[in-house]
Design a protein that fits this description.
Length: about 290
């Protein structure tokens, strides 16, 4: 009887191990890291997709576009989120490691220029914004506002939004321009931190992705130059090209994706995935034919 009992227990244990191994084998794990602008959107996508596909587990973390793309080059993530395009040196690092990164546009975004709600300034040109953040304009009275010092608020340097704002706004898309942020610019690690600082400081000016903007700050209308039309950011003005500080958002894979990663990216770019883009305040990207 004792022998029979031991054999039975052994069989049960073996069956449990087999089932556990089978469950482990049938599940798929996707590591997703990068842009803090995209992180809330990526988390919402992951949650919705896992509800539809419980066999897939998706881990999402932020840290900045540079962090995500570095992890991709190191082979430690499956998907890197970026609020800017991959740089040539990042591409080269990945290729040196044996990878050929593939780019997917997954949404669009506007960079809103924001001030405290009590600030009387309602609109600025791109050259004026460039002069503010580079330190050439230092008092609101120079722009027709009150006699108050300007407090500049920015994302930190590892942020793709920081890089995009530097190249497209401060340098006005000039490859030869080497202008940088004013040394006294307050660098913050998150989009939420930008909103909090500007909403608390009457002298502050900052910038943030449209999906993070709240009623606690005032969004300025922006013109590309003096004499041009001043436009506020919205899904409509991004899509028709009239708002001058708009960009695409990206996911990068190490190589041409296959299997579960490809299925996930196709879902993200589907009408179902893009509905979540709209829900979170970003601008849906028109899905391209593969």
């Amino acid at each position: 009887m004792l022998l029979i009992l031991l054999v039975g227990l052994s069989a049960c244990t073996s069956a449990e191990q087999t089932n556990t191994q089978s469950d482990s084998t049938s599940s798929t794990y996707i590591e997703n890291k990068g842009s803090d602008t995209i992180v809330n959107l990526a988390l919402a996508w992951a949650e919705a997709y896992q509800a539809l596909h419980p066999e897939v587990r998706i881990s999402v973390t932020g840290g900045g576009s540079g962090t995500g793309l570095a992890a991709l080059a190191n082979g430690t993530v499956d998907i890197a989120n970026a609020s800017r395009q991959i740089k040539s040196e990042e591409q080269q690092l990945a290729e040196n490691a044996g990878y050929k990164p593939v780019e997917f546009v997954i949404a669009r975004d506007a960079i809103a220029v924001i001030v405290h709600p009590e600030n009387p300034i309602n609109r600025l040109t791109l050259p004026q914004i460039s002069q503010i953040f580079s330190g050439k304009i230092n008092n609101w009275k120079e722009l027709g506002g009150e006699d108050r010092p300007i407090v500049r608020v920015s994302r930190e340097t590892n942020s793709g939004t920081h890089v995009y704002f530097l190249e497209s706004v401060i340098r006005l898309d000039s490859k030869e321009d080497k202008t940088i942020f004013s040394a006294d610019t307050l660098l913050l690690p998150s989009s939420e931190g930008i909103i909090a600082e500007v909403s608390d400081n009457p002298n502050a000016i900052g910038y943030d992705g449209l999906g993070y903007v709240t009623d606690d700050v005032k969004v300025l209308a922006v013109a590309s130059k003096e004499g041009a039309v001043y436009i506020k950011p919205s899904a409509g003005t991004v899509n028709n090209g009239s708002y001058p500080i708009a960009r695409e958002l990206y996911m990068y894979t190490k190589d041409t994706p296959q299997g579960a990663i490809l299925d996930y990216l196709n879902w993200v770019r589907s009408s179902e995935g893009q509905a979540i883009v709209s829900k979170l305040g970003f601008v849906p990207y028109k899905v391209m034919e593969n």
